[in-house]
Amino acid sequence: MKIADIRATTVTVPLEAPLLHSNGAHWGRFVRTLVEVETDNGLVGLGELGGGGESAEAAVRALADYLVGHDPFRLEALRFAIANPTASLYNNRTQLLAAVEFACLDVIGQQLGVPVHDLLGGRLRDEVPFASYLFFRYANASTGEGEVRTPEQLVDHTRELKAAHGFTVHKLKGGVYPPDYEAACYRALAEAFPGDRFRFDPNAALSVAQARRFTQLVADLPNEYLEDLTWGMNGLRQLRDLGVPIATNTVVVNFEQLAANVRDPAVDVVLLDTTFWGGIRPCIKAAGVCETFQLGVAVHSSGELGVQLATMLHLGAVLPNLTYAADAHYHHLVDDVIVGGKLAYRDGAIPVPTGPGLGVRLDAERVARYAELYREQGGYPYDRDPGRPGWYPLVPNERWADPHV
């Protein structure tokens, strides 16, 4: 079996409402590029990556010279063919490698008639638990609904999500409003749901001093961890004396950084992202290192549709040391591009696909509809806020949004 072709299609799928974060916003939709790797025996494997639009499509198509004729079983050779670490200093293809790895694992599973998790050691759990992943949100431009700005709105929104999906772990994305205001929102959340567990992530927007103050304000709450309160391993290392576990998905995203964190610990929990790490298999390798050194691991979300969600589920299924619920933006989507539409949560978890390969297939009608929507609407600047024209953040930030506007 050899790779015969690779295709890419960019889609945009609407969100319930625009999601705010420390660098800007998701402007009411996700832009994702779907990847299809076809083999000479007619199988089609699926991959996915975010952002880029036409440029991502072009980058994927440019891999044809690397891939056509390659045996999809030879994944280690593929890693060096696409993302040789020294060549990557000039042309970093980590996210492209991830999408192709997803597709190759999908093809291998289909060829052998087994789910991807069987290729990765076999599943240890039949479902993967998820956190609610809460955002401050603008109202939907069409309906006027969905705004989350005040503590009351945050609690009401969380209550709706908990009733609909069964979440018992809640993660608030911050870095939008002044830190003391977000601390008050976070405390209101914890007080409204006794017995649940909580996380906070301002995407490294705070200074070390601000991060210390924020931690002191919320240290008495049932925190699972505080994530990327400030930028850099040395900054996070300065927070370790405060007694709250520290997590990251920004400063430990490759093996050099993981080694540095083992030698001189800065974070307690490493969030593994199947895209940022270059595939599912590198995440499993990293989880093995974390298991050895008793570091926690969780599964990170980079804004997925159903294809990447499937990779997260297969990863979560096989990790023995997955003791934290996974992140997912998924419940903010109004639809998906896979057959059957969005996968359903059950008691705060999503069942692991059991069909061959990734266990999900593309819905041609949905793909066509959302590819056309992308052509109509185009992309959006992830690192800008549509509500604050001309704004951009500093790191650490001091240009906060006004929660009263």
Can you walk me through this structure?
The protein is an alpha/beta fold and 405 residues long. The protein folds into two domains: 3-117 and 363-376, Enolase-like, domain 1 (2-Layer Sandwich), CATH 3.30.390.10; 121-351, TIM Barrel. The protein is built from 13 helices and 14 strands. The strands form four sheets. The chain has a seven-stranded parallel beta sheet. It has a three-stranded antiparallel beta sheet with strand order 1-4-5. The longest helix is centred in the N-terminal third of the chain and has 19 residues, at 94-112.
Q: What descriptors fit this protein?
A:
7-stranded parallel sheet, alpha/beta, 405 residues, Enolase-like, domain 1, TIM Barrel, 34% helix, globular, 3-stranded antiparallel sheet
SSE inventory with pairings:
Elements: E1 3-14, E2 19-21, E3 24-26, E4 29-39, E5 44-50, H1 54-61, H2 64-67, H3 75-83, H4 94-112, H5 116-119, E6 127-129, E7 134-135, H6 151-165, E8 169-173, H7 179-192, E9 197-201, H8 208-218, E10 223-227, H9 233-237, E11 246-248, H10 255-263, E12 269-272, H11 280-292, E13 296-299, H12 306-318, E14 349-351, H13 364-377
Parallel strand pairs: 7-8, 8-9, 9-10, 10-11, 11-12, 12-13
Antiparallel strand pairs: 1-4, 2-3, 4-5, 6-14
In short:
It contains 13 helices and 14 strands. The chain is an alpha/beta fold and 405 residues long.
CATH overall fold name of the largest domain: TIM Barrel
Mean pLDDT: 97
Q: What is the CATH homologous superfamily assignment of the largest domain?
A: Enolase-like C-terminal domain
Number of domains: 2
Order of helices and strands: EEEEEHHHHHEEHEHEHEHEHEHEHEH
Name given to the CATH architecture of the largest domain: Alpha-Beta Barrel
